[in-house]
Amino acid sequence: MYSWAFFDLVCGGPKEAKAQAVAWRDAQLANLKALTLVEFHERHRSNNVSGMPGVHFHKTARQPLGFWQAKIRFHDGKSRAKAFSVRLHGYEEAFRLAVAARTELLAQVENRPYLHHPVAKRLCRQR
Q: pTM here?
C-alpha cells in the first residue's frame, strides 16, 4: 500500500489538492506492476498455517479426525473446493492430495491482471 497526504493549505485549496492527489495516484499506478490473478491466489497470507495458500485443515463432528481442503474463489465470485479425509487417506497423504488439487484448481484461473479500480485497469491496458 502506498499513500501520500495532500493538504488543502499546502496545495492551494481543495481542488488543487485533489488534482495533485489524482496525478500522484495515476503516476504511482503507471509505475507499479499489477499482480495477476494467479499471483494473487499464490500469495502466502499471515493466517495460513498449512504452508500452502488455499489449503486448510478442518475438523468437524462428522469428521473427528479431520480433512484437508483445497479451495479457490474465482474472480466471478464462484468457488470450488475439494476435500480429502484423514480417515481414508491418512494425514500426510490427504495433505498431499489437497496440495495437488489446489494446483489443479489454480490452473483454471485466468492469468490476467488483478485489478478493480477503473483507472488502474485503464493504465494497465495502456502499458
A: 0.68
Closest CA to 74 of 22, 124, 47, 110: 110
Percent of the chain with pLDDT over 70: 91
Q: How far apart are the first and last CA of the chain?
A: 21
- Domain-embedded: residue 91: yes
Q: Residue 9 domain-assigned?
A: no
* Length of the chain as a residue count: 127
pLDDT digit string, tens, across residues 66-96 = 999 999 988 788 999 999 999 999 999 999 9
125 within domain boundaries = no
